[in-house]
Design brief:
heterodimer, A: about 140 residues, mainly alpha, two-stranded antiparallel ribbon, 2 strands, about 70% helix, B: about 775 residues, 33 helices
Amino acid sequence: MMNSLILNAATRLLVALLLLFSIYMLLRGHNLPGGGFIGGLVGATGFVLYAIAHGCGATRAALRVEPQAIAMVGLGIALAAGVFAAFFGDALFTGQWLFIGATEEDYGLPLSSVLVFDIGVYLVVFGSILTIVLALEEEV
Amino acid sequence: MAEAAGSVPRVAGGPAGWISVLIPAAIFAYLVQFVPRVGSGEVILWAYDWVPALGIRLSILLDGLSLTFALLISGIGALVTLYSTRYLGNHPEYPRFVLYLLAFMAGMLGLVLADNLIALFVFWEITTISSYLLIGFNSDEEKSRRSALQALLLTGTGGLALLAGMIMLGNVAGSFELSVILTQGDLIRAHPLYVPIVILFLAGAFTKSAQFPFHFWLPNAMAAPTPVSAYLHSATMVKAGVFLMARMNPALGSTDLWFWALVIAGGFTTVFASILAIRQTDIKQVLAYTTLMALGALTLFIGAGTADAIKAMMLFLVVHSLYKAALFLMIGIVDHETGTREAPILRGLGRKMPITFLGGALAAISMAGIPPFFGFIGKEFLYKAGLEMEVAMIWITGTIFAASVLMFAAAGIAVLRPFTGPLAETPKPPHEGPWPMWICPLILGVLSLGFGLFPDYAETWLIAPGTWAVYGDYSYEVDIYLFEEVNAAFILSLITFAVGAFVYAFHRPLRDWLGRVFAANPIKFDPGWDQVLDGLKALAHWQTRHLQSGVLQRYLFTIFATLGVLAAFTIWSREALAFQLDLAEELDGLLFKHWAVLLFITAGALLTALTSSRMTAIASLGVVGIGVALIFIMFSAPDVAITQLLVETLVVVLVAVAMLKLPHLEIREGHRDWRPWHAAVSVLVGVVSTLILIAVLQGDIDRRLTDYFEMASWPEAYGRNIVNVILVDFRALDTFGEIAVVVIAALAAYALLRGTHYARRKAPEEDEA
């Protein structure tokens, strides 16, 4: 924890921006640079910044959930997205797609199990990094 | 007795008891229906695809050999489980015992019936493991645990050798199905891998069937409860090795290597074990060593390989299973009802235990080879086959003669002496055992007599189809009979009785003399085994001390030195440096921004290496990482660059946090600042990595995968970012594995950190969270 007024003030804004940016990175990942792994790293960076500015106790309070639980839920989501394909007779982890409002020229709004899988990756990376960082900081 | 008080005689041991008897009995009844079909020379095949991708099938091969074994396993199994209901029915762990025994039975049946080599191996290992559990059943005894572990390690090691041999054989023959392999003997015998295959198979078979020099685990395995000894370590499991050799005989047999390996090992085991049998005072040990002798004889006759020898082998296999299981069960009753198995103490039990004596006597007469018992026929045909051998006739016949003489004496020691003469003092006053116990040796003893009087039934049901399967020729006419004429074999039998009676008469002084001889012998296998194990432990200890020093620097040094040396060796051996590098031309293409980044990275690296502050080192290492990220950006790999930047940032934070705890990197008194070995390894890894990168860039990069993903990414996965599409769609299973590793690593780190955290503060501080 660092007692810096500038850091404290800037963190409030930066954390929100970083989290928003991380979700943006996650969602655009399928077509442009980004994805669950990068998104998770960006999101974790936000909370690491918060922990440096406000301390671990405050970070845990802000997270509300234990970071290791987040990581494990993420793993569960990724697995569920993979198993989902089995209900349609496909091999595990085969992407399942639904195009809402698709026309001849336009794919409409694509929803897919692949995105759900990527969200799982996001949560795993996010949760795992915070687990280690917070445990390390508290240990020190 | 219990059933005298109760109105209805019942099987003890609760439901576990009668279920354990019903299962093998039902299997036996089911298998009996195949006897006429197999007896007429039919081979029954049945298959179910198990792991089709690897060619592993659960397939059944039912011919004379496997049916004979399966009938012995299920038939003797039913008797042994019935016997156990009274022998162990009151034991608190009886249901566990039944579970192990049935697991073993399943494994053994699978082993003999399997048509697929890999399935056979799996069942083979099941018998090894269940044998381990059964030998160590009295787990509160040090001796049981040691014997169990010894048997497991020896037969397990043999099993691994066998697996290697099976894989080789499967590749040579082009199939893992025994029914295919057995028809390709000529091809296999001509293959260069034939010798290693035979050695590996024999390593598995010899350890399992306790052939010299792996014989010592079997007598130790007698630490198991007596029904287990009767079943596993006499009638069935130890014969698995014999089964394997018999099974593989059409494919691997009839070569000089096979002949001499089996004849020498089998013959030596036979003679060696018969002598050791006379030496024992514990009757169960006498029987254990005569079992070794029988296994040796079976091995010997498979090796001899003539049609007559194979017929004699099949005959003796059945003969031995019947009388030896009966004798083990008999000595179990004696032990159970008198509290001892020591031959010098036991005398005159015949009047107190008449039915046990009857069953034991029938089996013992068969073992001694006296007509008209089945054992006599077995011995006659062993002699006949031995005398007709063209090679090694003296060795084989002599071996069998010595073994038969000593078996005659052993039969007297095991049954005649304990049950006749004046009644002696025993730890418990002797009385007859309950019916589920005495009926078992009696049934087996009666069978030994019955098959002797009516050998035609044994011939058509078991011996003839078995001989055909092992010999691989279904046209060979099998004929067994009690008595034909006065020939060389018959005269040899008479001599056997005379010499055997002589040995029995003088067996006590002989035993004492052998005891003195063996006490003076410096080569002991059982203590030798302990020395091997101690040596192994010392090696592991030495290796751990050197590889797991606990000093992080040494670990890193080992890892990087290994990496550098192996990579350098690969570069040298693959001649990867055979390229022309035009350095001037390469450098010419670099722009100012490239030079700037290079300078940036070099400066960061130098600072990292030279600084004496940890914080500076980690920060400058971060600079290097960011420089690398810049390179990724310049060569348009934005995904990689973003990841690299973020990871660098987080690593710097993580390491910096960890380092806050550590003391300053001060140069201690007497500590050398200049560490040439570390410098050498650093330079080596750096140079080697550079060379590899240059070499890779010189060659043509295979673009097939890249092209495929570029083409398929949008139409098949609706994504334009190939990196991401590969991660979450094409190779999603890999990604899933990776994120699972991430979670496990995080949890491990958490446990480690919190563990020391709590240990230091003793009481956890709840308000912190």
